[in-house]
Specification:
mainly alpha, 19 helices, 10 strands, 53% helix, 6% strand
C-alpha cells in the first residue's frame, strides 16, 4: 500500500462563506484508468483509492467494453498515485500494450504518463491504497447532501435576503417573520421543502401550488409573494421557463400590491427583487422586456445606500441581454460601447462593490472576444480578477471563478499550458472552498481539457468520468437544468476525446458513443430540462451570473437556521 506524508491543515475558509468541515468522514476519490481492451489478466479484486480533504473524484472502474488489470493479482499492471510534487503520479500498463494519443505519440510497455498528472490537486492531500471487493461510494461528503445537488452551502439564517453583489443582508421585519413562521408550519410547505431537498421538483411544485391557493385566499400579498417566488425558483430548476415567467409575473404583481398595502423599505426591496428577477427570466427565454428593466432601475433608487449598486446590477443585466442577443433594440456592438462606459464609471468610483466591476470587465472581455480582439479581452479579464483578491461571499467567488476559467481557456488557446494549469488549479480551489458545486465540476472539465492538450489522456478521462458521475442524477430524481447543462458539455468533451483515441489500434469511439447514448436517455426522460439546458448552452449563457444578481434561496425553501 501507499501512504503519504503527514496530513497538513486545510486552507482557511472564505470569511463570509464559512463552509463547515468535518474530520469524521473522508470524501472518496477513485482514480480512473483507461479501459484496456482484452487485457492478459482480468483482476478479480480491483483496487480502489481513497483520498482525504477533497471532494474531487475519480474512478478506476472499467468501461462496458473492457476490463481492467491490476497489480493486486498480477505484477504486469500497476497504477500508483503519489502526493509528492512535482512527481505527482506515474502510471504503467500491462505489456504488450500501446496507447495512441491524439498528438500521434505512442506509449508502450510500462510507459509513464507525463507529469504533473493533476495540477489542481495539492501535495497536502493524503492518498492511501486499499483493495476491496466492494467499491467505495462515488460520493462521500462531510455533511448532509441533497442527492440532486451534492453538498449544499451552509444554511442561511431564516428570513435573511441578500444579493451576491452586496455584503449585507436584508432581514425581514418582525411582522413578516411571524407570518413566515406560520407559513412554514403548513404541512404542504414542509413536504415541499423535503421534496426539493431530495431532488423531486415536480412533487415539491405540487405541494407549493396548494400553498399558493391558500395564500391567495388569505388576501395577503406578502404570503402570496413567498409562495410564487418559490414556485418560480423550482420551475427554473426544472427548465420550464414559460412557467417560471408566469410565476415571475405573479411575483411582480404581488410585490406591487405589497408596496400599496405595506409601504416601506422592505416592500420596496421585495418589489425590486421581483421585477429584476423577471428580467433575468426574460433574458433566459431570449427576449428582454426593456420597459421592465428600466422599471427595476427606477425602483432601485428607493433602496437607500444599496440603490446605486442595484442600479448597476440592472445595467449589467441589460448588457448581458445585448451580448446574448436577447435585447430587442441593441446588439453586441452596442454592448461593447455600453460596457466600456460602465467599466470606466465603476473604475472611477473605486472598488466599493468589487463584484460589480469584476462582472462588468468580464462581460466587456466577452464582447471583445466576440469581435475578435482576444488579447484586449484578456486584459479585461485580468482587470476583473484584480477587483477581487480574496472572495468574501458567493457572488464574488462566482465571478472570480468565471474569470479564471476564461483566462484558462485563453492560455490553452495560446498553448501556454503552465499558466493554464496554475489558473485552473486556482479556480478549482476557490470553487471547493466556496462550496460552489457547479463551479467545481466546470473547473474539473477545464482541467480535463488541459490534460488532453498535455497528452495526459488517462487523467482527462478520469476527470470527465468523475464529472459525469457527479452530474448524473440518481434513479428517481430529477436533474437540475443547470447541472444538466454542464453534463452536456462534459459528455461532448469526453466523446470528442474518445473519437481521437485508440488503444492497441482499436478506436475508443464506441465509449464516446455510449456516453452520448446515456445522456440522450436522460434527456428523453426529462425533455423540458434538456431543451432548456441545450438552448442556454448553445447561447453560451453565463449561468454563474445568476449567483451574483439573484438572492439566496426563496424563503420557503431555506433550511431553518
Amino acid at each position: 500500500s501507499l501512504h503519504a506524508r503527514k496530513r497538513q491543515p486545510r486552507l482557511a475558509s472564505l470569511p463570509l462563506l464559512n463552509p463547515r468541515s468535518s474530520s469524521s468522514s473522508i470524501p472518496s476519490l477513485h482514480c480512473l484508468s483507461a479501459s484496456l481492451p482484452q487485457p492478459q489478466h482480468v483482476c478479480s479484486n480491483p483496487p480502489h483509492f481513497r483520498a482525504s480533504n477533497t471532494r474531487t473524484q475519480f474512478s478506476t472502474a472499467s468501461s462496458s467494453s473492457a476490463l481492467h488489470s491490476c497489480h493486486v493479482c498480477s505484477p504486469s499492471c500497476s497504477l500508483i498515485i503519489s502526493s509528492n510534487f512535482p512527481n505527482l503520479a506515474r502510471t504503467s500498463f500491462p505489456s504488450p500494450f500501446t496507447f495512441d494519443t491524439v498528438d500521434g505519440s505512442k506509449h508502450a510497455g510500462s510507459s509513464v504518463i507525463p507529469e504533473p498528472l493533476i495540477p489542481g490537486i495539492s501535495p497536502r492531500r493524503v492518498y492511501s491504497f486499499s483493495s476491496s471487493r466492494s467499491p467505495l461510494s462515488p460520493v462521500l461528503c462531510s455533511r448532509n447532501a441533497m442527492p440532486w445537488q451534492g453538498v449544499p452551502r451552509p444554511p442561511i439564517p431564516l428570513g435573511l435576503r441578500s444579493y451576491g453583489l452586496l455584503r449585507n443582508s436584508t432581514p425581514l421585519p418582525s411582522s413578516s417573520m411571524s407570518i413566515l413562521s406560520e407559513l412554514l408550519q403548513m404541512p404542504e410547505v414542509q413536504e415541499a421543502r423535503e421534496y426539493y431537498e431530495s431532488g423531486k421538483f415536480n412533487l415539491a411544485i405540487n405541494r407549493l401550488v396548494r400553498t399558493e391557493e391558500i395564500c391567495q385566499s388569505a388576501g395577503m400579498p406578502e404570503l402570496n409573494l413567498f409562495a410564487v417566488d418559490s414556485l418560480a425558483h423550482l420551475y427554473a430548476l426544472s427548465g420550464d421557463f414559460s412557467k417560471e415567467a408566469s410565476y415571475r409575473a405573479k411575483c411582480v404583481q404581488a410585490g406591487l400590491d405589497l408596496q400599496e398595502t405595506k409601504p416601506g423599505f422592505h416592500s420596496d426591496y421585495l418589489a425590486f427583487e421581483a421585477v429584476h428577477s423577471s428580467c433575468l427570466t426574460d433574458v433566459k427565454i431570449g427576449l428582454l422586456n426593456v420597459s421592465m428593466i428600466h422599471q427595476a432601475k427606477s425602483m432601485a433608487v428607493r433602496l437607500g445606500k444599496d440603490g446605486p449598486s442595484l442600479q448597476r446590477a440592472c445595467d449589467i443585466t441589460e448588457a448581458l441581454a445585448m451580448l446574448d442577443g436577447s435585447h430587442p433594440s441593441s446588439t453586441a456592438d452596442d454592448a461593447e460601447a455600453f460596457l466600456t462606459d460602465l467599466c470606466q464609471s465603476l473604475d472611477k468610483d473605486g472598488n466599493q462593490i468589487p463584484v460589480l466591476g469584476a462582472c462588468a470587465h468580464v462581460f466587456l472581455g466577452l464582447a471583445q472576444q466576440q469581435s475578435g480582439a482576444v488579447d484586449v479581452a484578456k486584459s479585461h479579464w485580468d482587470a476583473a480578477m484584480s477587483k477581487i483578491d480574496r472572495p468574501a461571499m458567493v457572488g464574488e467567488a462566482a465571478v472570480k471563478i468565471a474569470g479564471l476559467h476564461l483566462l484558462c481557456l485563453y492560455y490553452l488557446e495560446k498553448k501556454e499550458l503552465k499558466l493554464a494549469d496554475d489558473t485552473a488549479a486556482e479556480a478549482l480551489n476557490i470553487a471547493e472552498t466556496s462550496n460552489l458545486l457547479d463551479a467545481v465540476d466546470v473547473s474539473l472539465l477545464v482541467i480535463a481539457k488541459i490534460r488532453v492538450e498535455t497528452g495526459d489522456f488517462v487523467v482527462a478521462e478520469g476527470l470527465l468520468r468523475s464529472c459525469t458521475a457527479n452530474l448524473t442524477p440518481k434513479k428517481g430524481l430529477q436533474p437540475s437544468m443547470w447541472r444538466l447543462k454542464i453534463l452536456q458539455d462534459v459528455t461532448e468533451t469526453y466523446a470528442g476525446m474518445m473519437e481521437k483515441m485508440t488503444i492497441n489500434n482499436k478506436s475508443r469511439k464506441p465509449d464516446g458513443d455510449l456516453a452520448r447514448e446515456k445522456l440522450a436517455e436522460l434527456e428523453t426522460r426529462f425533455p423540458v430540462a434538456a431543451q432548456a439546458a441545450s438552448t442556454l448552452r448553445n447561447r453560451k449563457f453565463p449561468s454563474w451570473y445568476m449567483q451574483v444578481v439573484r438572492p439566496n434561496l426563496p424563503l420557503l425553501l431555506q433550511e431553518k437556521g
